[in-house]
């Protein structure tokens, strides 16, 4: 399995040059992408240029920065100057940003090698990655299944060994769900830990950038490089690096279990989670039974807020400054309406309409306002739970990777976010890590939720599990670059 | 039936900060199209607003100067509407928790116009319509604005324009805006309704958008009063609607009715944390407030003895009052400098824009020197007047225009001699005066002044002449 | 229940054309989601006192940063002329 540590070692020992490494990843991506659709755009030139810079440094014997020379995949809703950024939408099919996202600034600044821009659900709206204008990403663990959404392409690239790690974004589970479906570690940081500047907004009060990686230590290493406070994002707080704090011990850790998260869970998902709970008990963690009665209101609360913010954030796509343009129209208003209806896919249009509806005069109080009140209540309920435990253990998704083209109704689709989206509502950090398999050999994900800015606590619990199970659940597919 | 108009004003004022409200681009007026722009103020995907500290300070200062309460916590909100000049399809403004609430502006009659609120928001870009196309320039997009919302307290167009002038004077005095209507840095929406005189309930109002001169405000109100009066008198009803004023025709026309009213879908801006003003910052702003125009005017009148009309002129523009205070510095009677300015300078600097900029040919120090020469008895008032107009023409100091003869003064003996001669040579005027024509004395005084080439003191001459005639 | 007329009004507000859209199917979809969203109506909200004070006096200093060249700003525009973005009142086949 490729990890940042391994690849770094190979580079440092000059077992492989960064250029050779990069060429191998690019070549594998070119070969496999028609099948996987992990990438929307391969950024060959940028990758090779960086690789050469890294090789020069290695030749001179200079110290490498933590992510220097490591090939990675960047979700295609993160702004990259001079590199096409589409949000998997026809609307931005030909859009090339004129500025860099804060996260990409940091990574570029330390010569991280960008292999390409990762596929996703259009504007990050979806749970399968099938809402991509460029076709959905396949799950490398089983090509008949979806990679999960919305950062599905990023997870597919990592699980298919077409990148060592990836950077995704998570509004209601978009890092954790694909991580869970593809058997990877995905960290959704505390709201404000990572700058959102340059992240093309879906739900501004919910969006957060984070890593998708092959193991916990990689997720921690990437988080450490992107968690600086950004004065140009007013909601940015920044966070302390966590890698040095990880001990792998959970002795005395209070792990909370709220039964509502496990209601109606299929046996195939429940079993690995039960085993994980037993294992934590064996490792000396204290298990605390909790209640989360508001869970039943979490999904509507989430969708009302997310759609309201999305309808606002997506108003700017009018075809005048960037993006798709309608060619036939009656007048300027008609131009804007047609541009938007042609440029946005069905799910995006649906969420824009929902969002406009819940904000409109006469409905605002019943929907948006009520959802905001519930949001506060949900935050309070989490605070109460975290007074009694350090980490909440839940399933990441109540199901394993769905079959491609399963054709669910919108509401059925939304239900898959039930365990993840409350974390975004409350702005908390959570990690999803593989804890076993269902009957069909598809990975089952376990979610560990922490209190604000306790990334170290959740990652530490994740690391403890990984070590105790000797990484047996960490596995990438048998494809791509196997170093 | 006679009707009374009820008017409320919403006034938009651009703040004169160096940079825009949410990015570091300059707020300078003009510039080649789209050259004062960045990803934030053109709404590029993923860009985020970062609130400018000076905007909050300027807006709070405006609030303090207008007697508002300042909310130590306020919230930015998104106001949604689609128009090509608005790159994000929402304007970042304030809605439920504005920065300032309450407040008032006092008109000359002592009547107070109450304010509802003042909030901060961003300006939109500029559109040029040409042929079948719209040309868009975002240089102005993101320039900070305050919107000052009044209560429906106005009952005439005159009150409205006086209020607007007052706002201009105050906001300029505290240095938060240049309030230039011609450059669009001050604009006004008028909400107007009519009701029968004596009625206490409000009628249905029309809103006239985007008026950009005092004359437009007055003309739009006049036209709208006539239109609504005609409607109501004929038994019709006024529709609640938004109207446009055409400055060329002087008429208002309907833009959109109530059924097409915008649904702005306000909600709190998630990209901007709540605006908190700590008490120490607020105190610093309070302490930093300069003397306001009303207080200054009162001081000029009561402490400096400046006539009220002059005091009004001198306090209208900050630069003018600064000039006056420098010119009268250390003088026995500050009123003298005021008189020079009002009688001889203002006529040479007739436009409001020039007065606002106030850069006369004569410096305040030069005028100060002249006033001191006069007060020291070195010059007569008449000569000083002559010298001052020569100074204004040339920009040169007083000493360039004062001859030895001017400085020679004029003793009592010489005055007596000239007065006696004037009485002897103007018997007609003397007779007229004796038969009760009081004004005839002026002709005699004029003769004395002429003969003395302006050096005589006219008041002394008049007294002496009266004495001589009375025998 | 959302009606087709309401849906049309919302679409106009959201600047989406419903041309070529199966309006009734869309209405049903939206209606289903709203029905699901309606469950929050029953939620009793019991909020304790606001803790407050999480924001602080931390804003941008009023210092100019260089703007972007106009050609960068206009780079992704479909139509531009003399440094302006251009919008057309009419276009294409209609």
TrEMBL record, chain A:
Single Gene Ontology BP annotation: translation
Designated name of the protein: Glutamyl-tRNA(Gln) amidotransferase subunit A
Xref: InterPro entries: Amidase (IPR000120), Amidase_CS (IPR020556), Amidase_dom (IPR023631), AS_sf (IPR036928), GatA (IPR004412)
Function summary: Allows the formation of correctly charged Gln-tRNA(Gln) through the transamidation of misacylated Glu-tRNA(Gln) in organisms which lack glutaminyl-tRNA synthetase. The reaction takes place in the presence of glutamine and ATP through an activated gamma-phospho-Glu-tRNA(Gln).
Recorded GO CC terms: glutamyl-tRNA(Gln) amidotransferase complex
GO terms of molecular function: ATP binding; glutaminyl-tRNA synthase (glutamine-hydrolyzing) activity; transferase activity
Annotated catalytic residues: 75 (charge relay system), 150 (charge relay system), 174 (acyl-ester intermediate)
Coiled-coil spans in chain: none
EC id: 6.3.5.7
PANTHER family per the UniProt record, alphabetical: GLUTAMYL-TRNA(GLN) AMIDOTRANSFERASE SUBUNIT A, TRANSAMIDASE
TrEMBL record, chain B:
Enzyme class, broadest EC rank: ligase
PROSITE patterns noted in UniProt: GATB
Chemical reaction(s) catalysed: L-aspartyl-tRNA(Asn) + L-glutamine + ATP + H2O = L-asparaginyl-tRNA(Asn) + L-glutamate + ADP + phosphate + 2 H(+); L-glutamyl-tRNA(Gln) + L-glutamine + ATP + H2O = L-glutaminyl-tRNA(Gln) + L-glutamate + ADP + phosphate + H(+)
Pfam families recorded: GatB_N, GatB_Yqey
Molecular function terms, GO-annotated: asparaginyl-tRNA synthase (glutamine-hydrolyzing) activity; ATP binding; glutaminyl-tRNA synthase (glutamine-hydrolyzing) activity; transferase activity
GO biological process terms, semicolon-separated: translation
UniProt-listed HAMAP family: GatB (MF_00121)
UniProt-recorded name of the protein: Aspartyl/glutamyl-tRNA(Asn/Gln) amidotransferase subunit B
Annotated gene: gatB
Automatic annotation (TrEMBL), chain C:
UniProt protein name: Aspartyl/glutamyl-tRNA(Asn/Gln) amidotransferase subunit C
GO biological process: regulation of translational fidelity
Family stated for the protein in its record: Belongs to the GatC family.
Task of the protein: Allows the formation of correctly charged Asn-tRNA(Asn) or Gln-tRNA(Gln) through the transamidation of misacylated Asp-tRNA(Asn) or Glu-tRNA(Gln) in organisms which lack either or both of asparaginyl-tRNA or glutaminyl-tRNA synthetases. The reaction takes place in the presence of glutamine and ATP through an activated phospho-Asp-tRNA(Asn) or phospho-Glu-tRNA(Gln).
One Pfam family linked to the record: GatC
Organism: Sporobacter termitidis DSM 10068
Assembly behavior: Heterotrimer of A, B and C subunits.
Reaction(s) catalysed by this chain's protein: L-glutamyl-tRNA(Gln) + L-glutamine + ATP + H2O = L-glutaminyl-tRNA(Gln) + L-glutamate + ADP + phosphate + H(+); L-aspartyl-tRNA(Asn) + L-glutamine + ATP + H2O = L-asparaginyl-tRNA(Asn) + L-glutamate + ADP + phosphate + 2 H(+)
GO molecular function list: transferase activity
UniProt keyword list: Transferase
